[in-house]
Amino acid sequence: MTRENIFKRYQVSFDSKTLQHIFTDTLIIGSGVAGLSSAIHASKGGSVLVVTKTEINENCTEHAQGGIAAKLNLGDSYKSHIDDTLSTGQGICNDAVVSSVIREGPKRVKELISWGAKFDKENGKLAFTKEGGHSRPRILRARGDSTGKEIEETLINMVRKNPQIRVFEHTFALDLLVSKNSCDGIIAWRSQEGKILIWAKQTILASGGCGQVYRETTNPEIATGDGIAMAYRAGVRLQDLEFVQFHPTTLYVAGTERVLISETVRGEGGVLRNKDGELFMSKYHPSAELAPRDIVSRSIVQEIRRTDHTHVYLDVRHISKEKLSNRFPKIKKLCASFGIDITRQLIPVHPSAHYMIGGVKVDQNGKTSMKNLYACGEVSCTGLHGANRLGSNSLLEGLVFGYRTGNMVGKKLEEKKEGLSPRSFKEPSKSHLYSELDLEDLKNSLKSLMWRSVGIERDGKYLKEAIKNIEHWSKYIISNEFSSPLGWEVQNMLTVSILISSSASKRCESRGVHYRLDHPDTDDKHWKKHIIVYNGKYDFVQ
Ligand SMILES: Cc1cc2nc3c(=O)[nH]c(=O)nc-3n(C[C@H](O)[C@H](O)[C@H](O)COP(=O)(O)OP(=O)(O)OC[C@H]3O[C@@H](n4cnc5c(N)ncnc54)[C@H](O)[C@@H]3O)c2cc1C
User: Fold this and answer.
1) Mean per-residue pLDDT for 152-179?
2) Ligand 1 nearest atom to the CA of residue 67, by list position
3) Which atom of ligand 1 is nearest to the CA of 188?
4) 468-472 mean pLDDT
5) What mean pLDDT comes out for the span 86-113?
6) Contact between 211 and 353 (Cβ < 8 Å)
7) Which residue's alpha carbon is nearest to atom 53 within ligand 1?
8) Rounded distance, CA 22 to CA 19, Å?
9) Ligand 1 mutation target, pool 61, 214, 260, most atoms within 8 A of CB
10) Looking at the predicted structure, is the pLDDT value of residue 2 above 60?
11) How far is the CA of 209 from the centre of ligand 1 (A)?
12) What does the alpha-carbon distance between residue 451 and residue 196 come to, in Å, rounded to a whole number?
């Protein structure tokens, strides 16, 4: 079996003649910041249907703590935000995208405020904080450390009020329906109705990232990379999948989920200590705790190894009790639930997978390589982040590209009043071999393998071994047919894991978040370029 044979075109069998058909002008897959903002703007041109796997607010956006970066502070400048983004991105950002997103950012944030979003203020004026890699305070926050929740609730409120927008919760998007490289909608599954076909003039993928492919992750359970996998099965071009960002500080309490401790805690003065209570970050980088995330994550891994301990500690005991309560109410409460009083005790922390930088390759308007298919938010790769994401730039990207894709699609619909053309589709059934119990086992093995071999520090030999293992599992799992989200998610996770590890194995250098022990230097001569993958082919482009 060749590697390409592993990936079949559709996850499930179906016959369009026997299924329920649903029609909409614009279909949006995902209800995070990107999906909902694109829905609001696309609705100006016609009907919009948003489908989302679980509840409307079950996504990464809802969990975002730290904030959103935008030049709204008087002492800030576009140039400074652009320079910080470019320097963090390590030579492979798309300069035009960086400049345009950062210049458009304040407008989109003001729009969000006009829709009711309440960002924190000090003395009646918007309050700004700093994060690693930002040379000036420019991060807006809400309710201390619940920025994503405030943004999500504002967008949900706007969507609920809009008669043009329908939302289907508990609707799992399985595959894109494609003819002649043009997207006509999706096949989906609803817990009540089963499989359905949704026909759309324009489809926007806003299905978020894939942090769940790693054992240690800050991402909620929905982040299984479904959008990336379904785009790949349909032959859409993907870019830079080797670049996965690891967050330096997640709460490390054995046996529980990893929960993020926002970077703004270090921005407000929190420091890192090893098991002997020593400060160590200045040994690794002149900016110490405020060095870029990849450097802080790797420094923690090295310190953990050096001290032969499972984690390090975040120390905020020197910050006033009042400030801790006002700025980090959620984190304080979370730690207290594990018996940690952050005003008196150290917080055990460890790095975790956090953000997918690569994804579906798009242009400045979110257009993919397939006709009538757009992508925005974490599922996409716009070129804003290059090889490393500057903290708080992703909510900004979701907002800006949500606007751009929605606006573009809305305008196209206004200009061209063409009808929908549903066609007959038939996909034969496949064998059913695995039980859900086996799947849970396999999922855990995959997540551990990805963490060990395709994580913060990578090595060619272990990457190749990981690819071999994942391909072996994929042969059996991907060729099977499952009838519930767990099976489809594991298939998608396997697909995304092969793509991440293969791209990581091909990039024989270290750049940004991609660190190779066997190629520790950045190699601009050979690798100042992007890795594009589609239909089993890899292209290397400047
Ligand atoms: C803990 C945490 C903290 C963060 N803090 C910050 C921060 O402070 N600042 C910042 O800028 N960024 C932060 N990020 C990153 C940021 O939150 C995300 O990049 C951003 O919210 C992604 O938005 P999105 O709309 O692309 O995806 P999400 O918000 O993840 O939404 C994806 C949606 O797609 C749906 N979906 C997925 N697959 C399917 C399917 N098969 N069928 C149907 N629906 C599907 C999901 O149900 C979900 O509704 C944080 C991330 C995490 C996890």
Assistant:
1) 97
2) 8
3) 42
4) 96
5) 97
6) yes
7) 219
8) 10
9) 61
10) no
11) 6
12) 36
